[in-house]
């Protein structure tokens, strides 16, 4: 049993709690602390961001109810961040395994090419706040997310501990206060004003760690994909279920927004474009990929993980047209939606909407089953086509029929008026 153990501070990295234990223990050597905490073992992986067996190992040596493994894993490691886009059932399964001390391997922890370049980070604003509130500064888990360069609370650049070798963190206890006392060296992750899109990205990355575990993948739909589709990044196909995005267009938009380096770092080069469509079925595990798309879509994490499906704007317009009692032709409906007739058929199939234009024309009085063949030369055809376009009629035959009937009615009216005049005279 352990005779004492520090209470973790809000959002504190689990490694930081262990560092604070080391300082309070009075042990001179790191190894003595490791042996004390982990049943005589000389090596355990301490500096890990995802949870490992160190949490249940410590909890089992403390009086029952003092600390809870589940809570420690969720709030003091990046477990929630790395599993953010998994189904809730899968998350619970993994959480149980982690709390039992089992080794869990997940693919969402991306193997960054520059993983050795990763260094622990801190925010000067948080250091000052934490000292005021708790009497000491500590490493925040949210600042350790690989792509995080900005403190979402203070909206300032984070500082990076340049001289800390990430590998050494596994057997060394470097508490933030001790590190700050020896004055680094540390450097800011950026200089100058922070672009708004980077602030948005920091907010989204932090959400993925901080929001409740329940906020998970919604297997039947992706609000992120629907939102992007509503903003013009969608493609209409005969796929009856999922939203399909124009991967190339999305990739280019991401590059314009974040720059090539960030996009290539997260997705890879253009060969990775097909990956983007996996977002529609929650088929990507890596949270950063969702985060970039979310900033592009400009929607909140609340909406992305909502149990309520976003409405597809094309579906809404289609329903609106159906419910308005105006007479419409198929081509006109398609033109109003800015799509082709075959795309319109695909959409109707997808949303289970009966083709309402056909229903309108099968009524007894409106039944038109007599066809007239009209043979025109190219000049006449061109004239007719231009007139149809100018008058907003997208279907040529419909326009021709209208003109013909209008002309006949008009000549009848003139003839009737002349007859009246003759009778009066
Ligand atoms: Zn801060």
Walk me through the structure:
The chain is mainly alpha-helical. The protein folds into four domains: 14-188, no CATH class; 217-304, no CATH class; 313-361; 378-424. The protein is 49% helix and 4% strand. It contains 21 helices and seven strands. The chain has helices at residues 14-25, 30-37, 54-59, 69-76, 79-82, 88-99, 124-134, 176-181, 196-210, 223-233, 247-258, 260-267, 273-276, 287-297, 301-304, 313-323, 330-337, 341-351, 356-361, 378-390, 396-424, and strands at 121-122, 150-151, 156-157, 159-161, 186-188, 234-235, 244-245. The strands form three sheets. Strands 1-4-5 form a three-stranded antiparallel β-sheet. Strands 2-3 form a two-stranded antiparallel ribbon. Strands 6-7 form a two-stranded antiparallel sheet. A hairpin with an 8-residue loop joins strand 6 (234-235) and strand 7. Helix 9 (196-210) crosses helix 14 and helix 11 (247-258) crosses helix 12. The protein is elongated. Bound molecules: zinc ion. Residues 123, 125-126, 151, 153-154 line the site of zinc ion. Zinc ion (ZN) is lined by residues 123, 125-126, 151, 153-154.
């Amino acid at each position: 049993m352990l005779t004492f153990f520090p209470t973790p501070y809000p959002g504190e990295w689990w490694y930081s709690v262990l560092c604070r234990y080391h300082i309070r223990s009075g042990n001179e050597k790191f190894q003595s602390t490791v042996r004390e905490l982990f049943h005589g073992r000389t090596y355990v992986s301490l500096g890990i961001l995802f949870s490992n067996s160190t949490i249940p190992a410590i909890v089992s040596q403390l009086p029952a109810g003092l600390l809870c493994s589940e809570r420690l894993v969720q709030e003091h490691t990046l477990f929630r961040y790395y599993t953010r886009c998994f189904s809730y059932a899968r998350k619970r399964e993994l959480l149980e395994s982690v709390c039992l001390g089992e080794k869990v391997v997940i693919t969402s922890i991306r193997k960054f090419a520059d993983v050795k370049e990763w260094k622990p980070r801190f925010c000067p604003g948080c250091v000052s706040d934490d000292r005021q509130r708790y009497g000491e500064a500590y490493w925040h888990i949210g600042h350790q997310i690989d792509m995080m360069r900005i403190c979402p609370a203070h909206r300032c650049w984070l500082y990076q501990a340049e001289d800390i070798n990430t590998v050494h963190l596994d057997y060394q206890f470097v508490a933030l206060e001790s590190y700050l006392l020896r004055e680094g060296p540390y450097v800011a992750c950026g200089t100058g004003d922070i672009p708004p899109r980077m602030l948005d990205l920091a907010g989204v990355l932090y959400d993925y760690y901080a929001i409740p575990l329940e906020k998970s993948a919604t297997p039947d739909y992706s609000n992120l994909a629907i939102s992007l589709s509503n903003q013009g990044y969608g493609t209409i196909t005969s796929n009856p279920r999922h939203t399909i995005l124009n991967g190339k267009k999305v990739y280019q938009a991401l590059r314009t927004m974040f720059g090539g380096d960030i996009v290539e770092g997260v997705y890879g080069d253009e060969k990775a474009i097909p990956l983007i469509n996996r977002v529609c079925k929650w088929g990507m595990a890596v949270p950063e990929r969702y985060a970039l798309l979310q900033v592009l879509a400009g929607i909140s994490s609340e909406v992305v993980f909502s149990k309520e499906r976003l409405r597809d704007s094309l579906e809404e317009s289609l329903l609106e047209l159906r419910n308005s009692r105006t007479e419409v032709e198929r081509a006109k409906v398609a033109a109003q939606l800015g799509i082709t007739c075959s795309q319109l058929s695909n959409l109707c199939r997808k949303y289970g909407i009966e083709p309402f234009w056909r229903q309108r024309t099968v009524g007894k009085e409106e039944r038109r089953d007599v066809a007239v063949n009209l043979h025109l030369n190219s000049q006449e055809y061109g004239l007719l086509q231009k007139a149809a376009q100018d008058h907003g009629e997208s279907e040529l035959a419909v326009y021709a029929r209208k003109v013909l009937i209008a002309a006949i009615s008009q000549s009848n009216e003139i003839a009737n008026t002349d007859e009246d005049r003759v009778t009066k005279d």
